[in-house]
């Protein structure tokens, strides 16, 4: 990985107030948190997204972290690939500096996991991005939402708002995921994995 160049951090979700509190939108919530930490808000971008240019995290010694664009596609989840590809082209971002933040059914609720590449696990947003880019080899921050209770269809589960108990924990989960993004960008994937994958 080169030491220069802009990062692109994309949080996945569906547009509009109807979906804003859904489990499927937790990636978008994390990007809002990253923008807030930099004292800015996302604004409409011609790449069918809302985006902001920020500094991510702090480097050792206290200097501001690398330049990054944080963004949420304004398309529906299953069409995320077009906006992501357009943002990468517009901001000249290489695929090794693309980091996608998304909800993950196969990770316990409240946990954050990090990886590069691999399958999409049935996630339509990831599938769209991999298809548009022609590669799966991008970084992911996977935000655990757990499996649906009983026989509930996973598709229904992800499109429901977080429950009452989950909402109490949600600020901590969003904070942890934002911290994970910052650590990947400032310290690299391996060190971030060592921190976030270790038992508490």
Write structural notes for this entry.
The chain has helices at 26-37, 81-90, 124-133, 154-158, 164-187, 189-196, and strands spanning 7-11, 43-45, 49-55, 67-73, 98-104, 112-116, 139-144. The protein has a single domain, classed as Peptidyl-tRNA hydrolase (Rossmann fold), CATH 3.40.50.1470. It is built from six helices and seven strands; from the N terminus they run E-H-E-E-E-H-E-E-H-E-H-H-H. The two termini are 29 Å apart. The protein has 200 residues and is α/β, with parallel strands linked by helices. A seven-stranded mixed sheet has the order 2-3-4-1-5-7-6, sandwiched between helices.
Number of helices: 6
Order of helices and strands: EHEEEHEEHEHHH
The global form is globular
CATH class: Alpha Beta
Q: CATH topology, anyone?
A: Rossmann fold
Subcellular location: Cytoplasm
Binding site for tRNA: 19, 76, 78, 124
Catalytic activity: an N-acyl-L-alpha-aminoacyl-tRNA + H2O = an N-acyl-L-amino acid + a tRNA + H(+)
Active site: 24
Question: What is the topological layout?
Answer:
Blueprint: E1 7-11, H1 26-37, E2 43-45, E3 49-55, E4 67-73, H2 81-90, E5 98-104, E6 112-116, H3 124-133, E7 139-144, H4 154-158, H5 164-187, H6 189-196
Subcellular location: Cytoplasm
Subunit structure: Monomer.
GO molecular function: peptidyl-tRNA hydrolase activity; tRNA binding
